[in-house]
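Review form for a predicted model. The reviewer records the input and the model, then writes brief findings.
Reviewer: anonymous (R2)
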Amino acid sequence: MNSATLETKKVLKKCSFEIFLKFIISVCYRGSLLIIPIMWGKIVDYATIKNFSSSYRMIIIAVGVMLFYYISVCLNQVFYYLLYNKMYKLYSKLAYFSFIKNSIHSISRFKISEFNNIINNDLDIIVAFFSDTIIKVVQIMEFLIIYYYFYTIDIRMFISTVIVSLSMIVVLAILNKKTGRLNAKRKQALDKKTSITHEVFNTVKEIKGFYVFKSVNQRVKEKCADYLKAHSNLNTYSTIIKQIVFVFIEFARYALVAYGIYLFSIGKMEIGTILVIYTYYTKIIENYEIIGTLTSGIQDTKVSLKRLNKLIEYRNDDNIGDFVDKKDYQGKIKFENVLYGNKKDPILNNVSFIVNPNSISVITGPTGSGKTGVLDLLMKMNRKHEGSIFIDNIPYEKIDDDAFYNLVSLVRKEPNFFDLSIKDNLMLVGGNFKEVRNVCEKLGIHDDIMALKDGYDTDINNSSSKISINLKRGIAIARVILKDSKIIMFDEIIDTLESELQEKVLELLEEKKKDHTILVISRESNILQIADKIIRFDNNKIILKN
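Model under review:
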């Protein structure tokens, strides 16, 4: 049993009350539809024998049942969305949480188009399937009631109806296996189509700069054509197999009506019963369409759960029972014989060092020597192969994620921002606007922010060209200072700053080191000068610690 299936059981358990409500109202809704044809059959029978007063009474009762039916339809929709909305929220939380809990290596298996389609399309398919299945199960239960009705009026009708039903269920089950395969192909084609759309959006400057629109457009057309072909194949095949089933059921209906007329002619059946037989066979046809959509829905949901499982299966689920309960951390970092990356060509090869609390430590060395690997591990972006990493002599795997990520923070050379204003991006990590302004003033970027047209309310999405890269980096540093975690890490971003901003940042770090562990990756001599400890890397090993 895969991870997505196990998580689905948990989601369904959490939604058990909403499922129960939906089931009860579905029984009321569909049950009233079964009662109404019988009532109309009685109305016709009473009228046939000229018992008009009973016919009128039955019409009045039928009106009451009809009103109950329409009320049930409305309530059914209300309860459907109570269930759907709750399940969707639970699955969304599961998907996003699982994605965050994946290592960067695991995330690299995804294209953004595939991730988007899982989060949007596949979650909707899964949730809609379970929300719809309740009423579909009730509709399948209708078969039993209809079979019993046929059994009470004529054994031959009962046997023939059961034979037709079972035969068509087998046919649907066999034919719908191909539907699942066609749907998987459609989803793959959709991923590729979405991927090329993202590519066009992200490379529009290159498309214009090299004027390769015709070549790119040809690729877009090919991916679009592949998707349209896969989409039409799926839906055409599904429609054809449903119509084949419906034709056989219609033949059976007309044959039974003819048989009913024969029984009426010899006085063994009433005309109202023939009306009920015809109507109930209409319901059988409707319910076979439901079975068709249910079986295809099962195939669709299997595909979507398999894709969701890709998000879940490699997430890092720590054993909560082993977590260490510690309130105050000093911020001491220790690497002990750490092997990380490809074992044959590791990023960190048997690396050991200690970073003391209340200090500035600088990791330096040539490009590709393994420096950033230290920060990736300290942020739990990926997992090491061998060795141990400790925070205050506690294996860092034993620290609960909530505690751990409040303990560490990192700012990279090319920071990313949320699609919010400068103020909201900064306040997102904590603090009020007064604190935001105070940090920005210390860094000397407050005036630059105020010089923007909208000041702190200026949007700072990643593609924004209104804000200089130097100011963006300054805002990124302000964000990590505002978080005020015990361990603060800088991945070569300080090297890239203009001299005035760099000087302000270094002054602030000298102030912060009194009660923080500061770890900086840098090759700048003036940054190395403020270091209490320098750790020099070369060829993915440490060659100097002082």
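Findings: The chain has a mean pLDDT of 86.
Further findings: The domain at 333-545 is CATH 3.40.50.300 (Rossmann fold).
Recommendation: see findings above.
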